[in-house]
Amino acid sequence: MDQILKEIQALALPLIGQGKVADYIPALAKVSAKQFGIAIYSNKGELFTIGDATTNFSIQSISKVFSLTLSMKHFGAGMWDKVGREPSGQPFNSLVQLEYEAGVPRNPFINAGALVVSDMNQSRFVSPHYAMKTFIRRLSGNQEVQSDHKVANSEYEFRSRNAAMAYLMKSFDNFDNDVEEVLRSYFSNCAIRMSCVDLAKAFSFLANKGYCRHSDEQVLTEQETKQVNALMATSGLYDEAGNFAYRVGLPGKSGVGGGIVAIVPDQFSVCVWSPELNKAGNSLAGMAALETLSQKIGWSVF
Ligand code: DON
What pLDDT is recorded for position 95? Predict the structure, then answer.
């Protein structure tokens, strides 16, 4: 594995310079582009890393999997009246389908869907962000996990698009709580900082039939775990989900901080990170690294 990781790093590093660090959140634009890391965590507890695998970065939309998991645990099948399970074929921050589809977002991973999930968690928890942080600390085994207030505040300052979605959903009666409060907790969740190692460990329950070995807990049932992986495979990379399935062949979830997590069911959870993004808002070098990794090792759910 270590040799394969070295080869992948050698292939991926020259791609840095071809993408663009997210700058629509000003506090994120300050991240140095020349970083690259991979962590692979096996169901047996083995850890393989290369590059900047222990450097913390903004997890951004990767947080949407944790909030979905929390809401599935607490709302069960009832939650699916408020959010769909179909790929959107649209960018993560698109508004167009929301009006046509009466304020019910296509899936929990586009921003509108994640906002509805955050709204549900707002109804369920006294402090939804605290609940998320505690949950993530437990799953990653890292008690130091924190949210970056500067990034969260920067997102809130430039919230117009996300606020527009949330208010539109409220106008369709698909949003129960105060929009500004939910936006605050959604942004605090996106601004959580973790490393590739933390994320590979925290996602390991999705590779392990819902069981997390660090916290020794069944996070989701085996069936729910399959369902989350199915949603990641069909919608985890937005309008690039098809391309990701074609190139990588695994359930995955990206964030505009440049992280991508992928699941090899019953075997491994993987996190790659490199801050520069392609046009769809997914890590450019990260995609290439995962593609080569899955091809070299023969990983694919297809
Ligand atoms: O709400 C936003 O736009 C960001 N906090 C998260 C977007 C994101 O990470 C999209 N993923 N590639």
Answer: 95
